[in-house]
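Forwarding these from the shared drive since the link keeps breaking.
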Amino acid sequence: MRPVKPVRPVLVVIAHGSRDPRHAATVHALVRRVRSLRPGLRVETGFLDFNIPSVHGVLESLAAEGVRDVVALPLLLTRAFHAKSDIPAVLRDAPPRLRIRQADVLGPSPLLLSALERRLYEAGLSPADKSSTGVVLASAGSSDPEAIAVIAEIAREWRHTGWCAVRPAFASASLPRTEDAVRELRALGCARVAVAPYVLAPGFLPDRIARGAAGADVLAGVLGPAPEVARVLLERYDGARVAVPAALGA
């Protein structure tokens, strides 16, 4: 008899959700990209708020189908409140028959830096512009010190790839704001200034970043369904799939 091929856990992508319809549309586009890179892997999407299906609804449906193993992947760039509190709480309320592993958040990752550069080049820059261009790494922001420190470290790391300078900025909760970082790079003497939103999908805070980029020469698009982002999702899935399950929220 031919050996039975083990069933891969279902990947459940957990997105924040937004009243802005562009948010859900971008999340679904990213999930389609993930499916195209890993044919045969079942990928479902659940939202914490505003959009449907909810995370709880997705997990209930999977349990009703007889699914046993799930990898829950937070569609987040840093480990802040949602990754540490909201999502573990939702997963603890999942049907008990499900075995759930919570994957790591997406960032930091060299692939995300590649995605940021992709978006800058799509917005009009070229690799030849790097040494004369200052970049604002514009994040949504957080009150979590760990998340803020990660953004600052990413900016320092990215600076060493050849940009004139890289400065972090935040749309909420922390300083500096995007417009302040743009002015700082101008004062440093960078020939041009670009703003790279370190966000996954459009919405209220990305729009605030865009307004703060009014004084910049280049504004890149959000990361969205960039192929590098889809590859990070699959890396996080693979890492969680082989990990020993731990108590959620531990």
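-- next protein --
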Amino acid sequence: MTDIKKQIEEATEAGLYFGHSQAQTHPKMKPYIIMEKQGIHIIDVAKSIEKIEEAVAFIKKAKKEEKSFLLVGTKVQIKDLTEKIAKECGIPYVSERWLGGTITNFQTIKKRTDYYKELKERNLEKYTKKERLQFEKEKKDLEAKIGGIKEMERIPDVLIVLDMKKDFSAVKEAQKKGIIVIGIADTNVDPNLADYPIPANDDKTSSIEYILEKIKEALKS
């Protein structure tokens, strides 16, 4: 079996091919659709692999140039996966709700992350039980909101988005700041939202995991 055949087989098994219904399909996704089956558009996995390879090549180049990355994946089924991969690669991440202004109003966000880090190091023994409970509650809330970006000292050079429809706000903020976007584009999404779109199913965990493994290899190369 040739390498490309093996890749197509693995990507198909991971479910990258399965798109949305014809009624939901974005017109600009048509070049990536190979057929329709029972009213569902099927993504051309060969083109998915081609676009993954383009994204991976860019990531490797950006890594050599010491560019910074931010991984965004807030769907319930991939929150843990987003956090796991980001931590393995040593990059910031957003796995909960995207906070408006994370990129476009970064200085305000930075003040919150600095406060959160200070709060984590604060000696709470001198405070009353009520105050300690309040601080712990605040830490837990901040951890959920900004824990993944607490070490981010500046806006990223590259944004990796696992669902461009759900995290459209993140994509738009990146565009406003001229940040390169790598994004999974399901058939209901405009692939032109990303500089490096990856046509693939963004609902199946196995599909996202397949793509993330390729991205992880590039980030750790």
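The chain has a mean pLDDT of 94. The beta strands are 18-21, 33-37, 40-43, 69-72, 93-94, 158-161, 180-185, 196-199.

- D.
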